[in-house]
Amino acid sequence: MHDNSREILSKVLITGANGVVGSYIDFGIKLDHRSLDITDLNEVLSVVSKHSPKFIVHLAAETDVERCERDPQHAYIVNSIGTYNIALAAKSVGAKMIYISTSAVFDGLDGPYTENDACNPQSYYAKSKFLGELIVQGVLDDYVIGRACWMFGGGSKLDKKFISAIIQKMREPEIKVVKKRFGSPTYAKDLAGAIKKMILNNDREIFHISNEGNPSRVDIAKEIVKITGSATKITEVEPSFFSHVYSDQKENNEGMLSKVKIMRSWQDALKDYIKEEWSDYIMKR
């Protein structure tokens, strides 16, 4: 760590700061979509030039997988062209770019994956994010690409993903969970801490930054039952049961292995998350 870490962190610009990961970032110049439209190149160049950061953490993205499938053009405009605009702006002021990508760049047939495994994105969301990775590598020499997986965080207000859905169903006698789907959950609070470390360490290249472990969705649901002391029964169902939901249609493993141990186990992270950010909700049950 640097003695002048506060000064370094003051020169970081963050896009998409109103999202789940951004809500845990306690440093830098935080911009949301109202103060920066990443799809407008002139606006991006102007705003970045005004702040003249040394680092740009690019969090702004369309992460709604179902929406991306319905509207691929929207996915590419936000996740690919938006990333291109940020990369050009980073280049124009000589800033290093930290781009948060996804484990969905892999096809899920042979996980868990290391940073060196070949990408093969399947969904429009995954393709638009992978194109973002290629753009960052093509435009810039100084960058970090951090791939996360199965993000959770933000409590009942911001969390719209799998873990939040399970916690909110804990009052029900039975919850059906798709089987044979594996991943590496990523607590957004831990990811924000990892981003800070990567800036201060001046890391480069591609990193897998998820909490340690490769559980199934069923494992996670059972862990939530254990942590909350719920009497809910978890029932495993085939992927075809959720045939209307694109992201649940196939058996796969998009878990990740990291070349460096960056974050704690998914169980520890999940326990803290529920204790710190869901206890009021659970107490009201």
Automatic annotation (TrEMBL):
**Claim: Metal-binding is one of the keywords in the record:** no
Q: Which residues form the RmlD-like substrate binding domain?
A: 11-276
Q: Which UniProt keywords are present, listed alphabetically?
A: NADP, Oxidoreductase
What the record says about family reads: Belongs to the dTDP-4-dehydrorhamnose reductase family.
Any one GO biological process:
dTDP-rhamnose biosynthetic process
Which Gene3D superfamilies does this entry report, sorted A to Z?
Answer: NAD(P)-binding Rossmann-like Domain (3.40.50.720), UDP-galactose 4-epimerase, domain 1 (3.90.25.10)
Function recorded in the entry:
Catalyzes the reduction of dTDP-6-deoxy-L-lyxo-4-hexulose to yield dTDP-L-rhamnose.
Q: Which residues form the signal peptide?
A: none
Q: What is this protein called?
A: dTDP-4-dehydrorhamnose reductase
Query: What class does this enzyme belong to in the EC scheme?
Result: oxidoreductase
Q: In which pathway does it act?
A: Carbohydrate biosynthesis; dTDP-L-rhamnose biosynthesis
Cellular compartments per GO CC: cytosol
